[in-house]
Amino acid sequence: MKKLLVEEIVSAVECLCMEANYNLGSDIMAGFHRALKDERSPLGQEVLERLIENAQIAHEERVPMCQDTGMAVIFVEIGQDLHVVGGGLTEAINEGVRRGYYQGYLRKSVVADPFERVNTGDNTPAVIHYDIVPGDSLHLVVAPKGFGSENMGGLKMCKPSEGLEGAMQFVVDTVDRAGGNPCPPIIVGVGVGGTMEKATFLAKKSLLREVGKHNPEVRLAEIEEVLLERINRLGIGPQGFGGVTTALAVNLEVYPTHIAGMPVAVNIGCHSTRHKEITLQGRDI
Amino acid sequence: MNEVRRIETPLTQEKLSVLKAGDNVLISGVIYTGRDAAHKKMVEALRQGEDLPFMMKDQIIYFVGPTPAKEGQVIGSAGPTTSGRMDAYSPDLIAEGLTGMIGKGLRSQEVIEAMKKHGAVYFGAIGGAGALIAKRIVLAEVIAYPELGPEAVRRLVVKDFPAIVIIDQCGHNLYEIGKAQYRA
Fold first, then answer.
1. Most exposed of A220, A254, B4, B39 (fewest Cβ within 10 Å)?
2. β-sheet bridge partners, residue B60
3. SS in 3 state form for chain A?
4. Which residues on chain A are in Cβ contact (under 8 Å) with B78?
5. Cα atoms in the 13 Å half-sphere on the side-chain side of B41
6. Model's pTM, two decimal places?
7. Which pLDDT tens digits describe chain B residue by residue (184 residues)?
8. Beta partners for A186?
9. B4-9+25-161 to CATH, choices 3.40.50.720, 2.60.40.10, 3.20.130.10, 3.40.50.1580
10. What pLDDT, on a 0 to 100 scale, did the predictor assign at position B176?
């Protein structure tokens, strides 16, 4: 069985926390430039130009693009033939977050209890999603999530009779209600099916997809196109100042569900939806 | 594009009376920071008749919780946070004389009514442009509630801080006007 030292995991998470907060994905940067060509609102164009400039400053000076450096959401795929040695995996991930947020001058935005609201001071704990996969490597995605956008998501346990149109209307209405709050142009993550928590998980995970890439299944890609067009007709525009660029992408993921239900979840990502990843190979130690 | 208006703080009634929803502005002078926890504390202090960290009259509050400053930086990344969470507190501060708020996102009808009644303006800064905005902040010092960390009240000196008038003192709202213009 291949082995991986926890110390490697700590370092990787530390580095990914910083890189995700300093560097805009090239897919989103390309999306900004495309939007700049299509946007008709002068204020909207100005917002897009400033977002491009902001990303350049953050990259060059290695500072966070946004002051809300997020709650660290981490997706872990662990190979079933990999043995993590030297400590606990969850503990290692949280230590990486602790170091990354401290060393990287990132804001500590986590409170220990949702009611008492005392800051933990080190941005831990992270929200960690584990998946066990074949193989002997460990794949990590660090996706710091800001709450301007997170607060604007929603879930509806639709009736099957509401059908595709009902699901699409819920997505469009959720974006419409959000207005400028989630920092448009947004990425709209949509999860349909499964159970309540499966739908929300799919919506969140879909935000990791590269902007401009559609769901590989053609009928789902077509739904993404229709949703994007409907959302961009809402008029919200960059920052909600009015315009034709409200979303850069709609990412839809589906899962089998129960005969009696159709959960529809929307998780909104801001214009700088952040995620960086790495694969760590197990070794013979 | 509208002509850019320059505003020097303090933001008096005379200065804010010419501002219209959709105006592009550059703000210079002293402004103060405050977000969720600081607002809660300030409104509690008001209700108990205690002093506020600063006199509200003709002042601007910027809803922001910056990242820690690196060596050599005045302040870390410092973009606006969602203003709606301050809706419960803003009317009380506006009644005390606050004339400007900088944030992002929708405001409640209660806030807009207080703005119309007492004369105040809501500005939008570009959400998520924290690295860019930090460059326009030339001085930052914590003046109250240091225990709140990023949420502490800071006195900032800004130079050409870029913002848009979202809601003016007549209640005209760019979020409604802009959306209606491009809605198809």
1. B4
2. B100
3. CEEEEHHHHHHHHHHHHHHHHHCCCHHHHHHHHHHHHHCCCHHHHHHHHHHHHHHHHHHHHCCCCCCCCCEEEEEEEEECCEEEECCCHHHHHHHHHHHHHHHCCCCCCCECCCCCCCECCCCCCCEEEEEEECCCEEEEEEEEECHHHHCCCEEEEECHHHHHHHHHHHHHHHHHHHCCCCCCCEEEEEEEEECHHHHHHHHHHHCCCCCCCCCCCHHHHHHHHHHHHHHHCCCCCHHHCCCCCCEEEEEEEEEEECCCCEEEEEEEECCCCCCEEEEEECECC
4. 67
5. 17
6. 0.95
7. 558 999 999 999 999 999 999 999 999 999 999 999 999 999 999 999 999 999 999 999 999 999 999 999 999 999 999 999 999 999 999 999 999 999 999 999 999 999 999 999 999 999 999 999 999 999 999 999 999 988 999 999 999 999 999 999 999 999 999 999 999 9
8. A247
9. 3.20.130.10
10. 97
> Least CB-CB distance to A50: which of B129, B178, B181?
B129
Q: Tokens 């003709």 identify what position?
A: B58
Q: A143: which 2 tokens?
A: 């996706």
* Best CA proximity match to A96, nearest among A144, A26, A60, A149: A144
pLDDT confidence of residue A159: 98
Contact B12, B41 (CB under 8 A): no
| Preferred mutation among B3, B82, B173, B177 to probe A, highest tally of A CBs within 10 A | B82
**Segment A174-182 mean pLDDT:** 97
In the block, which residue shows the tokens 């400028």? A180
**Bridge-partner residues for A82, per DSSP?**
A2
Structural fold of domain A2-21+65-146+274-281: Dihydrodipicolinate Reductase; domain 2 (3.30.360)
Chain A: nearest CA to B140, how far in angstroms? 15
And the tokens for A259?
């005969």
pLDDT for A62: 97
In A, which residues are within 8 Å of B129 by CB distance? 50-51, 53-54, 65-66
Quick one: CA torsion of A29, A35, A36, A38, rounded to 10 degrees? 160
Contacts of A42 in chain B (CB under 8 A): 1
A–B interface: beta-carbon pairs under 8 A? 166
Is residue A222 predicted with pLDDT exceeding 60?
A: yes
pLDDT of amino acid A255: 98
Give how far the C-alpha of residue A137 lies from the chain's centroid of Cα atoms, to the nearest Å. 23
| Pairing between β-strand A186-194 and β-strand A262-269 as defined by DSSP bridges | antiparallel
Beta bridge mates, B30: B157
